[in-house]
Amino acid sequence: MSRIGRLPIDIPAGVTVTVDGRDVAVKGPKGELSLTVARPIEVAVEEGQVVVTRPDDERESRSLHGLTRTLINNNIIGVTQGYTKGLEVVGTGYRVAQKGSSVEFALGFSHPVVVDPPAGITFTVEGNNKLTVSGISKQAVGEVAANIRKIRKPEPYKGKGVRYAGEVVRRKAGKAGK
């Protein structure tokens, strides 16, 4: 049995979870998220807890069991606390600035790079080299942060670029001089 999948999820106060066939909707103080559950997995709300079950021990059922439970738990955490991902801009002349709801990066290109937030995502700039991506969907926050990092990944020689907060960049030795 899946160790994660069999754990019931406690529903905190102020959060409602509704199961309508294959759709699970989670509504909380920060917003609303929904999820479509894959075919063999069953979801039920019992006595203030969400219970995820599987009908058999087939390989696909076992793999979807823990995944479904984790996705529902992530939605509950998202509508109560939300998710954040920190980014740091490292390099001489590299900076980030807030322009309304979007952010503008100076990353050594001949032009500034403007990034607009998708629906449900907000950007917060601290100083001129720290950016925080926040929202209620863990998947959306991670994807937006990864796309921003992809604009200028940290390079291995000087470490310049956009990196996650706390990310350790492996550095290479330069050319050996004579």
TrEMBL record:
Pfam families: Ribosomal_L6 (PF00347). It comes from the Bacteria. Residues 11-82, 90-164 form the Large ribosomal subunit protein uL6 alpha-beta domain. NCBIfam families: L6_bact. Keywords: Ribonucleoprotein, Ribosomal protein, RNA-binding, rRNA-binding. SUPFAM superfamilies: Ribosomal protein L6. HAMAP family: Ribosomal_uL6_B. It comes from Microbacterium koreense. InterPro entries: Ribosomal_uL6-like, Ribosomal_uL6-like_a/b-dom_sf, Ribosomal_uL6_a/b-dom, Ribosomal_uL6_bac-type, Ribosomal_uL6_CS. This protein binds to the 23S rRNA, and is important in its secondary structure. It is located near the subunit interface in the base of the L7/L12 stalk, and near the tRNA binding site of the peptidyltransferase center. Belongs to the universal ribosomal protein uL6 family. The keyword Magnesium does not apply. The keyword RNA-binding applies. This is Large ribosomal subunit protein uL6. Gene3D superfamilies: Ribosomal protein L6, alpha-beta domain (3.90.930.12). Part of the 50S ribosomal subunit. GO terms for cellular component: ribosome. PANTHER family: 60S/50S RIBOSOMAL PROTEIN L6/L9 (PTHR11655), LARGE RIBOSOMAL SUBUNIT PROTEIN UL6M (PTHR11655:SF14).
